[in-house]
């Protein structure tokens, strides 16, 4: 199934499935945004679950593959300097160094090519800028037989279960690890902060 079509179908149910489970960890991640005004890209903004948690001083751009997700996000942007763009996180439609901060919440494990997304993130991020990641990843050399068994089916509908963050990061030397903390599900979900050098 096409990823865009898949997320168009699940947009009405997405919030109910993930809001309560992820709100506290999203807020924890977003607390790392700077105090001074910045240009912030929300990659894979989805239905806008991050929007009510964002400080108001920044200028936000949200990008998502599907129109249905963006339409559900817009009402949540009240009071924010926010505009949305329909586009592909693996081929961002922005010039180099367009943003000071990038938020990648629950997007890397969804994409067919998370490495392409991270490379594009580094391209559009200004030197010294940060990337805030909240997502689920396998640890290096983790067997996780059930997750790997289910992955071919689950990835067609919603998300991948086999992404190893360290392998993705290796493809983007411009980004360096600043912090990596366990979040949900015994550390399967992690809060990661990178910096652009």
Short recap of the structure:
The protein is α/β, with parallel strands linked by helices and 197 residues long. The chain has helices spanning 3-30, 67-73, 114-124, 145-157, 165-169; strands at residues 39-43, 59-64, 81-86, 99-105, 125-136, 175-182, 189-196.
Chart the SSEs and their pairings.
Blueprint: H1 3-30, E1 39-43, E2 59-64, H2 67-73, E3 81-86, E4 99-105, H3 114-124, E5 125-136, H4 145-157, H5 165-169, E6 175-182, E7 189-196
Helix pairs in contact: 1-2
Cα gyration radius (Å): 16 Å
Order of the strands making up the biggest sheet = 3-2-1-4-5-7-6
Alpha-carbon distance between the two ends: 37 Å
Helix content: 25-40%
Could you characterize what this model shows?
The protein is an alpha/beta fold. About 30% of the residues lie in helices and about 25% in strands. It has a 7-stranded mixed β-sheet. Strand 4, helix 3 and strand 5 form a beta-alpha-beta unit. The radius of gyration is 16 Å and the shape is globular. The mean pLDDT is about 90.
Please give a handful of descriptors for the protein shown.
single chain; 197 residues; alpha/beta; 7-stranded mixed beta sheet; 7 strands; globular
């Amino acid at each position: 199934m096409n990823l865009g079509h898949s997320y168009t179908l699940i947009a009405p149910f997405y919030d109910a499935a993930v809001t309560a489970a992820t709100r506290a960890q999203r807020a924890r991640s977003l607390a790392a945004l700077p105090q001074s005004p910045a240009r912030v890209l929300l990659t894979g903004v989805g239905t806008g679950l991050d929007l009510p948690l964002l400080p108001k001083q920044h200028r936000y751009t949200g990008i998502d593959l599907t129109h249905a997700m963006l339409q559900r996000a817009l009402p949540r942007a009240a009071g924010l300097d926010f505009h949305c763009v329909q586009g592909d996180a693996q081929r961002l439609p922005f010039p180099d160094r367009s943003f000071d901060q990038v938020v990648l919440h629950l997007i890397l494990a969804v994409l067919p090519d998370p490495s392409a997304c991270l490379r594009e993130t580094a391209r559009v991020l200004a030197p010294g800028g940060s990337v805030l990641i909240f997502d689920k990843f396998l640890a290096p050399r983790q067997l996780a037989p059930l997750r790997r068994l289910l992955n071919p089916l689950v990835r067609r509908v919603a998300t991948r279960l086999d992404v190893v963050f360290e392998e993705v990061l290796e493809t983007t030397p411009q980004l360096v690890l600043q912090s990596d903390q366990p979040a949900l599900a015994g550390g399967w979900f992690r809060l990661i902060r990178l910096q652009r050098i």
